[in-house]
Amino acid sequence: MSRYVSETKTILERLGVPAGALGGQLVARSPLDGGPIGAVKPTTPEAADAIIGKAAEAFALWRKVPAPRRGELVRLFGEQLRANKDDLGRLVSIEVGKVPSEGLGEVQEMIDICDFALGLSRQLYGLVIASERPDHRMIEQWHPAGVVGIISAFNFPVAVWAWNAALALACGDAIVWKPSEKAPLTALACQALLMRAIAQFGDAPEGLSGLIIGERDLGELLAEDHRVAVVSATGSTRMGRAVGEAVARRFGRSILELGGNNASIVAPSADLDLALRAIAFAAMGTAGQRCTTLRRLVVHESVYDALLHRLRTVYGAVAVGDPLAGETLVGPLIDRSAFEGMERALDTARAAGGTVTGGGRVAVEGAEAAFYARPALVEMPGQTGPMLEETFAPILYVVRYRDIEEAIALQNGVPQGLSSSIFATDMREIEQFLSAAGSDCGIANVNMGPSGAEIGGAFGGEKETGGGRESGSDAWKGYMRRQTSAINYGRTLPLAQGVKFDI
Ligand code: NAD
């Protein structure tokens, strides 16, 4: 049993999780000590089918509610999150092992996206388009898309759902969520808070927000169900390939947010003090379990030795341990298979000529069943082998470069395209990195690491990262359907392109 079991129970009660949802066969474990913290009743396929059906019925009503009124529901949900931030943040830390500021940060991100979606509910703008025909007007408007299915990963167990849920609800959609089987308790907590907001709202249709808890088969069910108009799936590229294909087969729409293999370039003009701090957070923060974690460092040969000397010291000294029990920056990996994946990648790197600093399991008292790993810094002779894959653990591979063209080619030379960054003060190199011939990623930062996105921008990446965009900017359009209308207010019937058809 985990030492966090009774605290978890108390938090779940305070957040209003119904007792009936607990006590089933799906065991939730805390990676902080590896012990069980609760059990959840998985949703049967029949119940999931009924939940999707209810959501489809709710959608038919919700789409007719004026958008600013829909925004009011999102506002109420944001208020619930504000009032319960400490509890939910703590639960995130317990269930997936995040340091306290990151657990709370995830809830803050949920609050931020609610604020954003509330504003958006008065700004779902269309267009008026000049018509080529006399006495005609053309418009483009955005209508709610339908039921939005949300499949989420363990590493952002609550924020990613909120990105999707807040926008989808403001846009007039109903939602059905299939959270990670590794984080069912935070999902129950979020659903309970949304249910409170729905009760306060008063007249939202029943079934507007559904939760289906279980393994990947429930995700497959969502992907294959023709009643689900949009499937927004966050997770590994392997999962995204399966979901993308299933959704495309039935001509549904998918938003895919998949694995990253993110690089930073350290140019000769870089501020090395700033770069060092940014690299440490981006590579080791969240124990390397962010989709935007820094995994590859491309360093100019003129600053390589100076930077690597300092990085080795940081890697040797960083505190690893239970972040709720002491002052540590690096918490546990989610489970044994994550640790084994890290070990395998390090073995492959060694076989490819890499020199490894760090790595290996860290023993933490009272947490013998948990998997804590020392972050690893791996100097590679070239960009080969495990550098081309995403290993979801704190491994930072380092290679040298000679000119900026080579650095950009290395940055782009992997199958994934999520996030990237450059450390430089030379304007020409920075602009080259940000140009059309520069980074090929969805995110390209300057003088900061690739991780830690704000909700105001569109989030997502190219190539095997899946091409989806969520969160800010105009990502809301992914949750609506576009309609173009031509309106003839004259008494004749001129046809487009001068076509004649007189009867
Ligand atoms: P995962 O792919 O194992 O699981 C993610 C979710 O997909 C889970 O809910 C799982 O049950 C479900 N799933 C798995 N296979 C499925 C299938 N064939 N059909 C339908 N559903 C399926 O990922 P994970 O280990 O939970 O999370 C880590 C991965 O997520 C990393 O690759 C990381 O980069 C990625 N990630 C990406 C982003 C992003 O925004 N790009 C954000 C967070 C995490």
UniProtKB/TrEMBL annotation:
Active-site residues, as the UniProt record annotates them: E257
Pfam families: Aldedh
MF terms in GO: aldehyde dehydrogenase (NAD+) activity
Superkingdom to which the source organism belongs: Bacteria
Entry annotated with the keyword Acetylation: no
UniProt domain Aldehyde dehydrogenase: residue ranges: 28-484
Sorted UniProt keywords: NAD, Oxidoreductase
Species whose genome carries this gene: Devosia enhydra
Protein name: aldehyde dehydrogenase (NAD(+))
InterPro entries xrefs: Ald_DH/histidinol_DH (IPR016161), Ald_DH_C (IPR016163), Ald_DH_CS_GLU (IPR029510), Ald_DH_N (IPR016162), Aldehyde_DH_dom (IPR015590), ALDH7A1-like (IPR044638)
Quaternary structure and partners: Homotetramer.
EC number assigned by the record: 1.2.1.3
Family membership: Belongs to the aldehyde dehydrogenase family.
